[in-house]
Amino acid sequence: MITSIHFQNFKALRDTTLPLGPFTLIVGPNNSGKSTVMQALTFASDPSAFKFDDIVSAGWENESDPAIEVEIEWLEQGRRTTLVSGKLLRRTFGPSPRGEGVFTEAIERKLAGFKAFSFDARALAAPVQTHGRAELGPDGANLAAVLSTLNGREPERFDALNQELQRWLPEFDRIVVDFPQPGHTEFLLRTRFGHHKYNARELSHGTLFALAFLTLAYLPNPPSIVGFEEPERGIHPRLLNEIREGMYRLAYPKDFGESREAVQVIATTHSPYLLDLYKEHPEEIVIAHKEKDGVHFNRLSEKPHIGELLEGAPLGDIWYSGVLGGVPTNP
């Protein structure tokens, strides 16, 4: 598990450390580095895919040698190790002043499995090549192929997904995989009453987004590290508890009877309604503060007198009031 990431000169993150746990929800104003965290993990996996001018912090012209680093502290089998990636876009693995070295192969494999998702309804609903790679794209593309593979190779898991679908979206009772023409796969949702079938392109954006979360939660081998940008987008507030449960199923599989390895989940949000659901788990909340010297991250659980602050009001209301920080402020 990644326990922290230190950023140096990476876009808005000039010199700051982000603490992480099995599940982390980051909340903060616009342009406070929430999305940059996702980009930085991609960068750590493959710095060569990025251009220097696209990721260096503003004002680098004033520095003779602006090192761009993403330093990841890793906990594996009780031992803490450190990976330093991207010194001036030259990827390096090795000892760091903060660590004892790295298990290079294991960490590379984990980072290579990182996926950041920001779902797009059109991509989710699109038919796909039947023999294409059954892996969900960052925008949700290829969902039909993923469902078809799950149906064919993991029928019991696919049935369990359909049972959960009925709880999340009671209007429907089953996902139907179809092959409209040779070489193409699509999916439909069947209504509980009347068994009418709705093509994916006829479904609402929120329904498609919820189905994507549900599918990821039931994959037998999901990505090792997952990022979700604004998982509340397009989702009715009453369904947010199910979205949280889907993310928890990834992060805490044993709590849901799963035997697979845990997925480390990092999500960002602007929703006070989603934040309300984590009032009992302030250790899972990280507040992004945008200040004159850059962005800083702090765990909510480490805020002084947090127990008193959380009494008597929803967490979302407390955050929205500004008392916790992490909200837009006047310059």
Structural account:
By secondary structure, this protein is an alpha/beta fold. It has a domain at 1-113 and 263-331: Rossmann fold. It has eleven helices and 14 strands. The chain has helices at 34-45, 52-55, 104-112, 121-125, 143-153, 155-168, 205-217, 240-251, 272-276, 306-309, 315-321, and strands at residues 2-10, 13-19, 23-27, 69-76, 79-85, 114-117, 128-129, 172-178, 184-191, 197-199, 225-229, 264-269, 285-291, 294-299. A six-stranded mixed β-sheet has the order 6-11-12-3-13-14, with helices on both faces. Strands 2-1-4-5 form a four-stranded antiparallel β-sheet, covered by helices on one side. Strands 7, 8, 9 and 10 form a four-stranded antiparallel β-sheet that branches. Strand 4 and strand 5 form a beta hairpin. Helix 5 (143-153) crosses helix 6, helix 6 crosses helix 7 (205-217) and helix 7 runs parallel beside helix 8. It is globular. The relative contact order is 0.15. Mean pLDDT is 86; it is low at 88-102.
What does this entry show, briefly?
The chain is an alpha/beta fold and 331 residues long. It has helices at residues 34-45, 52-55, 104-112, 121-125, 143-153, 155-168, 205-217, 240-251, 272-276, 306-309, 315-321, and strands spanning 2-10, 13-19, 23-27, 69-76, 79-85, 114-117, 128-129, 172-178, 184-191, 197-199, 225-229, 264-269, 285-291, 294-299.
- Evaluate the radius of gyration: 21 Å
Distance between the termini: 37 Å
Average pLDDT metric: 86
What string, H for helix and E for strand, traces the elements in order? EEEHHEEHEHEHHEEEHEHEHEEHH
Helix content range of the residues, please?
25-40%
